Amino acid sequence: MLNDIKEVLYSEAYIDSMVKRVGAEISHDYADKNLLLVSVLKGSVVFMADLMRAITIPARIDFMCVSSYGSGTKTSGVVKIIKDLDINLKGYDIVIVEDILDSGKTLHYLVNLLKSREPNSIEICTLFDKPERREVEVYAKYKGCDIPDAFIVGYGLDFDEKYRNLPFVGVLKPEVYGEV
Ligand SMILES: O=P(O)(O)OC[C@H]1O[C@H](OP(=O)(O)OP(=O)(O)O)[C@H](O)[C@@H]1O
Ligand SMILES: [Mg+2]
């Protein structure tokens, strides 16, 4: 698996520093609120596990599984809900936890869907943001860092369901995508 990596972009230590910073920001802002963290599976699974432990106030958690990239590197533009939330959102202050904001289509769809369920508030927390790729406007109040226009893997992020278990974030060699 490591042989497929062209370059490590973000080390475990750097990712940990971003997670701790964002966790402290959310802990401060939601101290007097009814926080529900909504993890968008599968990609945010690792970020969610670390972020929730960096949050020092009471927080409930729930999970949605959506997919729009399938086995490729480009969004299909169609967001498929594979597993919906269990919790009724009324009365909660929601923070949607994502691994990456790319075209914006997934989160644009999800925010509108979850708004219709009448929570107190909704904000977005994404570990990575690719502003150059945005196709629809989405505002992430909490963010690890902006990244260049490259397809990244690791720390939950996949290519064709692989590489999610890498502890760091990197880019694959072009030949792995079948591009030389
Ligand atoms: O801003 P966008 O262009 O919509 O891209 C972002 C979405 O793409 C990835 O999910 P994916 O569809 O790959 O499913 P996964 O989380 O199971 O990998 C990622 O986890 C985000 O949910
Ligand atoms: Mg994916």
From TrEMBL:
<keyword id="KW-0963">Cytoplasm</keyword>
<dbReference type="GO" id="GO:0004422">
    <property type="term" value="F:hypoxanthine phosphoribosyltransferase activity"/>
</dbReference>
<comment type="similarity">
    <text>Belongs to the purine/pyrimidine phosphoribosyltransferase family.</text>
</comment>
<dbReference type="GO" id="GO:0032264">
    <property type="term" value="P:IMP salvage"/>
</dbReference>
<dbReference type="GO" id="GO:0000166">
    <property type="term" value="F:nucleotide binding"/>
</dbReference>
<dbReference type="InterPro" id="IPR005904">
    <property type="entry name" value="Hxn_phspho_trans"/>
</dbReference>
<dbReference type="GO" id="GO:0052657">
    <property type="term" value="F:guanine phosphoribosyltransferase activity"/>
</dbReference>
<comment type="pathway">
    <text>Purine metabolism; IMP biosynthesis via salvage pathway; IMP from hypoxanthine: step 1/1.</text>
</comment>
<keyword id="KW-0479">Metal-binding</keyword>
<dbReference type="GO" id="GO:0046100">
    <property type="term" value="P:hypoxanthine metabolic process"/>
</dbReference>
<dbReference type="InterPro" id="IPR050408">
    <property type="entry name" value="HGPRT"/>
</dbReference>
<dbReference type="GO" id="GO:0005829">
    <property type="term" value="C:cytosol"/>
</dbReference>
<dbReference type="GO" id="GO:0006178">
    <property type="term" value="P:guanine salvage"/>
</dbReference>
<keyword id="KW-0547">Nucleotide-binding</keyword>
<keyword id="KW-0460">Magnesium</keyword>
<protein>
    <recommendedName>
        <fullName>Hypoxanthine phosphoribosyltransferase</fullName>
        <ecNumber>2.4.2.8</ecNumber>
    </recommendedName>
</protein>
<dbReference type="GO" id="GO:0000287">
    <property type="term" value="F:magnesium ion binding"/>
</dbReference>
<dbReference type="InterPro" id="IPR000836">
    <property type="entry name" value="PRTase_dom"/>
</dbReference>
<feature type="domain" description="Phosphoribosyltransferase">
    <location>
        <begin position="19"/>
        <end position="159"/>
    </location>
</feature>
<dbReference type="GO" id="GO:0006166">
    <property type="term" value="P:purine ribonucleoside salvage"/>
</dbReference>
<keyword id="KW-0660">Purine salvage</keyword>
<dbReference type="GO" id="GO:0032263">
    <property type="term" value="P:GMP salvage"/>
</dbReference>
<comment type="pathway">
    <text>Purine metabolism; GMP biosynthesis via salvage pathway; GMP from guanine: step 1/1.</text>
</comment>
<keyword id="KW-0328">Glycosyltransferase</keyword>
<dbReference type="InterPro" id="IPR029057">
    <property type="entry name" value="PRTase-like"/>
</dbReference>
<comment type="function">
    <text>Purine salvage pathway enzyme that catalyzes the transfer of the ribosyl-5-phosphate group from 5-phospho-alpha-D-ribose 1-diphosphate (PRPP) to the N9 position of the 6-oxopurines hypoxanthine and guanine to form the corresponding ribonucleotides IMP (inosine 5'-monophosphate) and GMP (guanosine 5'-monophosphate), with the release of PPi.</text>
</comment>
<keyword id="KW-0808">Transferase</keyword>
<dbReference type="Pfam" id="PF00156">
    <property type="entry name" value="Pribosyltran"/>
</dbReference>
